[in-house]
Amino acid sequence: FSLEQKKLAGFMETILTDTIKSSMRILSKSAVIEQDINNSIAACKLDLQLAGVVNINENDALIIRAVTLFVKAEFNYQNAADRYRQSYEALKMSLCLAGDYNTKEG
Questions:
Q1: Which terminus of the chain has a smaller tally of CB atoms within 10 A, N or C?
Q2: At what angle do helices 3-23 and 31-51 cross, to 10 degrees?
Q3: φ, ψ (nearest 5 deg) of residue 73
Q4: By the 8 A CB rule, do 61 and 67 touch?
Q5: What pTM was estimated for this model as a whole?
Q6: Other Cβ atoms within 10 Å of 27 Cβ, number
Q7: Are 12 and 63 in contact (CB under 8 A)?
């Protein structure tokens, strides 16, 4: 990756991290919490890739939703990890079956 691509990836990670923190009502600027969230985001992206999702655009509403559901399940947000995990798995299945997400752009 070029330096520009790395900077853009870091910027996008920050936006996605902030989006998830906001959805979970986390106001803390703790580096440890942000690292845990970033690790969960990375794990979600890998899980989506393993399921066959090729196009993971962090500006896409469904990708943002999938990542948010995954992180909420990982953090057991509002003691509803099972509910968030089931929602994530259903959305992941839809994404991996949808042509816009399971084929290379271009």
A1: C
A2: 100
A3: -65, -45
A4: no
A5: 0.83
A6: 8
A7: no
